[in-house]
Amino acid sequence: MPKYYEDKEEDNRACAGIREDFKACLLQHDCVIKEGKLPSECLKEGHCKALQTSFFECKRSMLDTRSRFRGRKGY
């Protein structure tokens, strides 16, 4: 189960679950922990790419004019 369900304050922002998982992935990656790099540097190297793409798609769906009629995707 994703970590954002366990003992967290409720975050009502859009894409909060993916945001939390993306943040945890970057902060717990060997690139940050062992090599001491910034999360932004690790992101440029391509770590946590799947979560980055999911987060981007979630945010983009909020701006999509078609979503006004269909509703946001279930993220």
UniProtKB/TrEMBL annotation:
Swiss-Prot/TrEMBL keywords: Disulfide bond
The protein's name in its UniProt record: Cytochrome c oxidase assembly factor 5
Taxonomic classification: Eukaryota, Metazoa, Chordata, Craniata, Vertebrata
Superkingdom as given in the UniProt entry: Eukaryota
Organism: Xyrichtys novacula
Protein family: Belongs to the PET191 family.
GO CC terms in record: mitochondrion
Keyword Metal-binding: no
Job of this protein: Involved in an early step of the mitochondrial complex IV assembly process.
GO process terms (BP): mitochondrial respiratory chain complex IV assembly
